[in-house]
Amino acid sequence: GLHITPEFFTFLRTFREFKRLLEDLDIADEDQVDLFDTLDVDGGGTIDLEEMVVGISKLRGDPRRSDIVGVRLVVRCIQADVHGLRDVADRVLEACSVNARDMRRLERGFRSLSFVAAPLPSIDDEVSPQGGFESSCV
Fold first, then answer.
1. Mean pLDDT score, 119-126
2. Higher confidence at residue 19 or residue 114?
3. How many angstroms separate the CA atoms of 46 and 6, rounded?
4. CA atoms of 110 and 33, how far apart (whole Å)
5. What distance in Å separates the CA atoms of residue 108 and residue 115, rounded to the nearest whole number?
6. What's the number of CA atoms in the CB half-sphere (13 Å) around residue 130?
7. Which of 29, 46, 117, 130 could bond 3 through an S-S bridge, CB–CB 3.0 to 4.6 Å?
8. Are 31 and 62 in contact (CB under 8 A)?
């Protein structure tokens, strides 16, 4: 189908007739500036005919209470997701910290063994895959 890019949409906005058409559809002048981003609901960088028709129909007229409630519900859901992601990130960081402490204890234990002939790399050293391990948590 037909996909409109931001550049083509900006080009269309240079035509008086296009601007007049948007005004006739109750799209306020101040809403026309960011209209492409508003209509690109999937964030794909282009808008197709369906996105344009559905989006413009939703922009017509004054905001209704249901519009505001809908936005608040979506924001609340996003907030819950962000809090959940933060909790997961905190647990991963804690696990990495515990793993790093355990690895340092093991390193000290190996260094104290008298039969180790070659020097061991430090856990804080970057080691090539052939020569040992790398810790991405430290």
1. 58
2. 19
3. 7
4. 65
5. 14
6. 0
7. 46
8. no
